[in-house]
Amino acid sequence: MSATIRIVADSTADIPQELREELGIVMVPLKVHFGQDVYLDAVTITTDEFYAKLEASSQLPTTSQPSPNDFIEVYNGILEETPDAQILSFHLSSEMSGTYQSAVLAESLIEKEADITVIDSKSASFGFGMRVVEAARMARAGKSKEEILERVAWLRDNMRLYFLVDTLEYLQKGGRIGKASALIGSILNIKPILTVDKEGFVASVDKVRGQRKAMQRIVDLLREDFKDEPVGVMMAYSKHQGAATELYELARSHFNVQQVDYTTIGSVIGTHVGPGTAAIFMFRV
Amino acid sequence: MSKRLIDGNDFTNMVNRGADCLQRHAEHVNALNVFPVPDGDTGTNMNLTMTAGRQELLSKPSASIARASEVLSKGLLMGARGNSGVILSQLFRGFARGSASLEQMNSVQFADALQHGVNLAYKAVVKPVEGTILTVAKEAARHAIQSARRVRDVTELMREVHAKAKEALDRTPELLPVLKQVGVVDSGGQGLVYIYEGFVAALEDAPDAGPASYTAAPSAPTVRVPGGPAAAASLGQATAQSRLETGAIEFLYDMEFFINRQLGGGAGRRFDETAFKAALAKDGDSIVVIADDEIIKVHVHSRKPGDVLNLALPYGELSDIHILNMRDQHRELLHDGTVFIEGAPDDSTAMPSIAPDEQHLAEALPELLSGAPAASEPPAVVHELAPYGIIAVAIGEGISDIFLDNNVDVVLSGGQSMNPSTEDFVQAMEALPAEHIYLLPNNGNIILTAQQAAELSERRVTVIPTKTIPQGLAALLAFKDHESPERNASFMQQAAEQVQSGQVTRAVRDSVIDGLQIREGDCIGIREKQIVVAHQELLEACKSLLDQMIGEGGELVTVLSGEEADPAVTAQLTAWIEESHPEVELEVHSGGQPLYPYLFAVE
Fold first, then answer.
1. Are both A104 and A240 inside the same structural domain?
2. How confident is the model at residue B91 (pLDDT cuts 50, 70, 90)?
3. Using one digit for the tens of pLDDT, what is the confidence trace for B333-366?
């Protein structure tokens, strides 16, 4: 029997809690700051509580990465339980957050002999959450680390994500607008079609006017990649599900959808995209 | 009078009279607009174009017809506004090529030059339409070529050319159905006929042969053009100025005035132009006299302004008298620091000691033209060029703001009621430190001007031929900063074609077009290039136009309210769209455009 594989992910993978618990994924929370108050993402603040607070607060929250020590405690905890564990630790794009750096530093500070692989997902939210879920399922099925990493790399190349924000204000204020910033005016209701590019930056692939045209454009873009192939879909939303539902209803009629699920965008990603965001993650199955 | 040869001076007189004749009739040409919209501007555009050409020609007179026509061509090219203005400039650019190296030209050469003009003008237009100024010019030139074999007298030939042009003009409604429908002849063609009419008049009045009708002083300032005495300065003049010593200006009073022949003691007295000019020439130079039955315009540089006025008084009342001391002007010009060193006189202590580069010259030019004192600016700093820049034409503060908010660097004011000139584009491009420039004309009548400016510019320029504001906005949103100009041009063009444009204005006269009965004052809705609705009520006209546009399919409706929009109507219209077309998204913005209460985009 091969070594036990344990999966670690930070909270920005936006994996629903039940699924996380069912698959034994160890979650390391990032932090959300409302003024002096600090909350642990998905631990001391739920998604609903976060959006309620966001609405009530005059001040935009900020976020911070877990400390190296947070990771050291998690890694050590796993290694105490299962000394021969191989750890796969998946993290938010290093272009958006220092979380990956923190994990890398923690790994180097672990004193015991340990097999820890820290992965820069170069993505965000379910864009890498999906890979984490798949890795956890494969680990349960007894697959090797190599098999899992190969599969995860394949998934990365066979998944597309697009998202629409209600307003660019949050991306701009949080400084996570990446390559999407320069060209978007604010007078007309211009909807940038946003994605996370291969390097892990938020990028705008196109911009159109109006929400409906934006959704149609996303479907067109996805058609270029997936045509009539069987696909899985994960929809994510912040606060309101309406836009995500509308986007899925439009997409459903254009694709051979084998499975669909919805998840909420957690408080850290939510801080940077704002309420009313709708995201679609589509992948080959 | 008969003339077997014409030279640069004759040509200058012709252009002068041609421009005058066009100017007098500019309103009539405007009124020939096919659509009864309030911004018929062919006359205005051609007149401004011709005025720019005349201004250039009069500031650099030459006895050589090759040189004179070349100078005119340059002035027209830079001053060209609107499609007819551009075509006009191409006609004379071709004429200049046809007259290359000739000091004087005979009838055959004249005809040949006209034909050169036609050839070039046809080339300048992507899809030449018959029944327009092009046809008028073409038939006139063709007739000239045939006639010149037997007609040696250029005056006679020009008479025939004019007659033929008039004939062709009268036939334009047969060639272009829309003209016939509305019952007008082509406006641009009419403009050309007026210019030719002036040509004929100039040749008929000209002295038989011999020396020029006035003394040409190359590269020296001569005539003040409409717009006041200060308006005629030019780059060439400035250069010449710097080589001149102030004291060397002999005929130092630059005079311009009008004699009104209907008023005053001398009213109705016979005017002998040749004798009058001869009298002026005794103590003056740079003489230009333009006479018709009512008004005589006089320009002269003289030592004794009192004598000049006394000479003029017997023919009528004098008005608009401008007298400038050119030595003063020259001293100022030298002082401004806009002048150039070569052969500089000693009293120009404030002059910069750096030879200005092209860029600097271009910057100095508008100030000289506007007559404003040119500030002594430091030499232009060479900035690093941005990879691209976008220039859009728009009118209305709100619309300009939208363009600027969406990555446009410069909004050139203009559009439905005022078309920018080639030079406006060229200057805007010179001032924009970008390697590649995109131009969005946003009006069908500005595309040719933009293309002409693009050819003249040394930058890499891509004209996206947008015909309306909605098309311009759609094209702009399709722009991607990391794409090549070729691909961007294609994306932007495609995007422009995806949007439907509508505009609402008031009819300025009764008309019947495409079976639609239009009364003066009606609100008319124009969809792309066609009037599709006329209604007394603004709201009803808007509804009907929008129904037709949305009926073609659309997800997003944009309303741009103009200066003359009524907030109550805007509110009613918005409510109506939301109720009767719940499937579309709606955006309402204040555009601030004149004359058109509403612009609509459906996409």
1. no
2. very high
3. 455 433 332 333 333 333 332 333 333 323 333 3
- Which ranges in chain A belong to alpha helices (H)? 17-23, 47-56, 68-81, 99-109, 126-140, 145-157, 169-173, 211-226, 242-252, 267-273
ipTM of the complex: 0.77
The answer to whether the Cβ–Cβ distance between A188 and B558 falls below 8 Å is yes
Residue A25 has pLDDT above 60, yes or no: yes
Give the residue with greater pLDDT, B35 vs A122: A122
Which residues, in sequence order, are CB contacts of A210 under 8 Å at separation 6+?
Answer: A189, A191, B555, B556, B585, B587
Closest CA to A4 of A74, A70, A103, A79: A79
Q: Count Cβ atoms below 10 Å from residue B489 Cβ, excluding itself.
A: 18
- pLDDT, position B286: 66
The strand pair at A230-237 and A256-264 is best described as parallel
**Residue B16 shares a structural domain with residue B127:** yes
- What's the pTM value of the predicted model, to 2 decimals? 0.69
Q: Which of A189, A209, A211, A217 to mutate to test the interface with B (most CBs of B within 10 A)?
A: A209
Q: Are residues A190 and A226 in the same domain?
A: yes
Contact residues, chain A, for B479 at CB < 8 Å: 183
3-state DSSP assignment of residue B294: coil
For helices B358-370 and B235-242, what crossing angle results, to 10°? 100
What is the C-alpha to C-alpha distance for residues B298 and B224, in angstroms, rounded to an integer? 10
Any domain includes B366? no
- Which domain covers residue A271, as residue numbers? 159-284
Max CA pair span of chain A: 62
CA A154/CA A196 separation, integer angstroms = 17
Distance from CA of B565 to the nearest CA of A (A): 20
pLDDT of res. A206: 87
In terms of domains, do B447 and B557 share one? no
Q: Is residue A119 part of a domain?
A: yes
Rounded mean pLDDT, B495-506: 95
Q: Which of A142, A165, A139, A166 is nearest to A152 (CA)?
A: A139
The percentage of chain B sitting over the pLDDT mark of 70, rounded to a whole number, equals 81
- Could you report how far apart the first and last alpha carbons of chain B are, in Å? 62
Residues A133 and A224 in one domain: no
- Residue B319 β-bridge partners: B258
